[in-house]
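Good day; I would like, with your permission, to put a structural problem before you. What I wish to show you is a protein chain and, alongside it, a tokenised description of its three-dimensional fold. Thank you for your consideration; the sequence and its tokens are set out here:
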Amino acid sequence: MSVYNGERFLALAIESVLAQEFTDLEFLIVDDGSTDSSPQMIRSYAELDSRIRPILRENRGLIASLNEMIETARAPIIARMDADDICRPDRFAKQIAFLEQHPDYGVVGSWSEDIGEFGEPLTRIGMADHPLTHEQLLQAIEFGGQLICHPAAMYRRDIVQSVGCYHAAFRHCEDLDLWLRLASVTKLGNIPERLLRYRRYPGQVSSRHATEQQIGTAVAQAAWRERKAGRADPTETLDRLPPIDDLDALFGRPGISHQVREQVALGLRYSASAMRDEGFDLLVTHLREGGRRDGMWRTVLRLLRFGEPLRALRLAATLTKSQAA
């Protein structure tokens, strides 16, 4: 578990791990330079339970924290957990049993139960559950579907190390990039039980960094297609992804920049946070370049609902101009 200013939900997250029916574990918690009471909370729990191994240090970011814990872990199996979610007591036991029964699987996740800011259950309207078998997961990769919920994942340490752990360039979508790389060396799947209560609220990372996350997702999928075609992955050694306009040069052929921009633009239409930041400018650029207009007039109405009337007018003007042209 990596923690950064997580005091609000941290106690419930830690206690759900300590309450696991599977008890033979070490609990690595990195405090990644928190400025709230998270370090003190972690120390207090470590004093009460010797299975907790706290690492308290300056801020280095989530990917550095995840890779540090993989290197530090003494066990051959690693379970991921986030500081705002809650494990069901039988989560680890069921995932360990799955990996023991399926030695050809290197990663197993589970379905999750969505909860809100105050622990209230949320209805999953139009959201499909994660695929179960490796074959289903490979199909999901093809059409950009969900793969494995990161804080519900358990994986074999040596297999993750064999592909270089998490890659620094894919901030906010480091898990997807890892699953895509692992899919070619091991099997991945999910247990069809809701073993994790996954918290959704406005302040979480996926809400605050929607545009960067979507760009990283599109580039990770492009890199996966390169590997699938037998070509080298140009993102493998990057510390940071280049601007979208530079992707043709990175991949060594034309069309990648347009492909990524279009995928991101169409994906960001539903995100209020993205439509309030650089995601909106990316969408406008996509339209000015003659990109797909699917559902864009509905996006104008959506911007009004988001409280962005000036951006709604700008998008409507862009659509009108491109239609006239």
